[in-house]
Amino acid sequence: MNNKSGVETAGNVSTSLPPKSWITLKINGAERHLEIAPWTILLDALRNLLDLTGTKKGCDHGQCGACTVLIDGKPINSCLTLAIMHDGAEVTTIEGIAKGDALHPVQQAFIEHDAFQCGYCTPGQICSAVGLLNAGKLRTPDDIRELMSGNICRCGAYPNIVAAIEQAMQSEGSAAQ
Amino acid sequence: MNPFSYTRSGTLENAVTEIARDRRAKFIAGGTNLIDLMKENVTRPSRLIDINHLSLNKIEETDNGGLRIGALVTNSDVAYHPQITRRYPLLASAILAGASHQLRNMATTGGNLLQRTRCSYFYDITTACNKREPGTGCSAINGFNRMHAILGASEECIATHPSDMCVALMVLDAVVQVTSNRGARAIPFAEFHRLPGDAPQIDTNLQPDEIITSVDLPGEGFAGNHSYLKVRDRASYAFALVSVAAALTLEGGVIKEARIALGGVAHKPWRNAEAEALLKGKPAGQDNFRKAAEALLSGARGFGHNNFKIELAKRAIPRALKQAAAGTPQSQTIKKVL
Ligand SMILES: Cc1cc2nc3c(=O)[nH]c(=O)nc-3n(C[C@H](O)[C@H](O)[C@H](O)COP(=O)(O)OP(=O)(O)OC[C@H]3O[C@@H](n4cnc5c(N)ncnc54)[C@H](O)[C@@H]3O)c2cc1C
Ligand code: SF4
Ligand code: FES
Ligand code: FES
């Protein structure tokens, strides 16, 4: 039950909710200031507080990859981390993968290869692949199949997803030469 | 998730003082296990102490020719570190066999050791579970126990430890360095995790006020003859039904030293000195590998759904030893088992 001071009382024990605090996230290149509770999950902060709904909630338990975003360039599951832990970090979501109107090669390849059906897993698939390519971890189609296993696709678009990432991998390889 | 307060620790001294002050506080590192358990209300800390800003994130050479892996080094950074891939490829392989690249980017060395069982009753707070609530009973023993232990279980709990990395650390005879307000100590890997016995709520011999600072690897990494073979329900991104870490030192086709640890079969990574001794001085061949497997599985007991794991382990062990002897370790990318 709440009393006037906003302090919850249970019998004669009074407990107050731990305070919110201000954090700064550099999201897709722009600094955003947020007042959040300690228990706010990064995924929920992105979707509910910042209206960046491109990042999806699939399982909410690290089991599907739909919530994949890049933190300081590295792909992670945003459903298993607290926003408050990333004060000062750079976060890239699917909304920040393209350069203005120019699609990222992975995005372009997903379109060319029809690498989705419902599209729900796609933002996570793309962020995951972009992070892996940037880190130089993809060299063969087997690498793609193994390292992309953290991104489940309920529609089963896997053959086209692998083909799309393979195309991006090759164009990146030839661009680097 | 229950409300909790949050503090960031900047120094080791601060972290151990904070944890000693509050019995219901917990450290948070990668968060991949703790937050999952908090979402399910299995764990309800009053306070999280964020240790990610402590300087425990380096891999360094030790005086005795080994490597010290800081507790906060991520699983990815360990698996791709040039010293690890060159000198301890078994460890790199075991890490890459686990979870997904996103999770490995978050998961830390210390957190991996302390991840809790994936027993589905442990995760479901509407069921009885001695590990979650001591004295309530074990739902798995007469329930769905396909993933559960075949070795070292008790009537109180038949859960398994889910880590892959720890199975390799067990074979490598790693040492866990811990510290608290009371001082620092070193825990040999074999003594870090414990069997459930009559206190299944306690997974390890780490004390509640202690923090892991590093995991130290001795000089011998078995880089020549090793293999990590993980058998699971799908080829990637699944926990082990049975896994085998095998390491051999060979002299002409004769075994000088053999080390074998099993994952997915017990409350801790499973090793058996007698089974290893059986191989010493013997030719590296299938007959001897099978004898070692029988010895490792001596005393194994199934609980119904998981009976198949006994035979599965007996077949996986010789296969991993064969891969190790041939110098052709199991690839974690190309899944065909040779
Ligand atoms: C979907 C999924 C699949 C997975 N698959 C696998 C798999 O196949 N194989 C595998 O091995 N693992 C797997 N994992 C588990 C993963 O490896 C662990 O969750 C991870 O290693 C835990 O590390 P963390 O840093 O995130 O720990 P956290 O969640 O931060 O912490 C875990 C526990 O350790 C404590 N802690 C953390 N660091 C320290 C320290 N330095 N000192 C003292 N206490 C500390 C925390 O208080 C907490 O109690 C999977 C996880 C998920 C979600
Ligand atoms: S096996 Fe252990 S963790 Fe699972 S229900 Fe039984 S007591 Fe709980
Ligand atoms: S929503 Fe994060 S992994 Fe499924
Ligand atoms: S396109 Fe529908 S889940 Fe992948």
Please provide a written account of the structure.
The complex is a heterodimer of chains A (177) and B (338). Chain A is an alpha+beta fold. Chain A has two domains: 19-96, Beta-grasp domain (Ubiquitin-like (UB roll)); 105-176, [2Fe-2S]-binding domain (DNA polymerase, domain 1, Orthogonal Bundle). Helices cover 31% and strands 18% of the residues of chain A. Chain A has five helices and seven strands. Chain B has helices at 12-21, 34-39, 75-79, 82-87, 89-96, 101-106, 109-114, 120-123, 165-171, 273-279, 286-296, 308-326; strands spanning 5-8, 25-28, 47-50, 59-61, 67-70, 175-180, 183-188, 211-217, 226-231, 242-251, 254-263. Chain B is globular and about 60 Å long. The model of chain B has no long low-confidence stretch (mean pLDDT 98). Classes of the chains: A alpha+beta (177), B alpha+beta (338). At the A-B interface, strand 6, helix 3 and helix 4 of A face helix 2 and helix 6 of B. The complex binds flavin-adenine dinucleotide, iron/sulfur cluster (SF4) and FE2/S2 (inorganic) cluster (2 copies). Residues 26-34, 36, 51, 71, 98-99, 103, 106-108, 110-112, 114-115, 162-165, 211-212, 239 of chain B line the site of flavin-adenine dinucleotide.
Biggest sheet of chain A: strands, sense, closure?
5 strands, mixed
Query: What is the strand arrangement across the widest sheet of chain B?
Result: 4-5-8-6-7
Let me know the CATH homologous superfamily of the domain at 226-326 in chain B: CO dehydrogenase flavoprotein, C-terminal domain
Poorly predicted regions of chain A: 1-13
Terminal Cα span of chain A: 66 Å
Bound molecules: flavin-adenine dinucleotide, iron/sulfur cluster, FE2/S2 (inorganic) cluster
The greatest interface between two protein chains, and residues involved on each side, is: A-B, 35 and 31 residues
CATH class category of the domain at 226-326 in chain B? Alpha Beta
Annotated CATH architecture of the domain at 226-326 in chain B: 2-Layer Sandwich
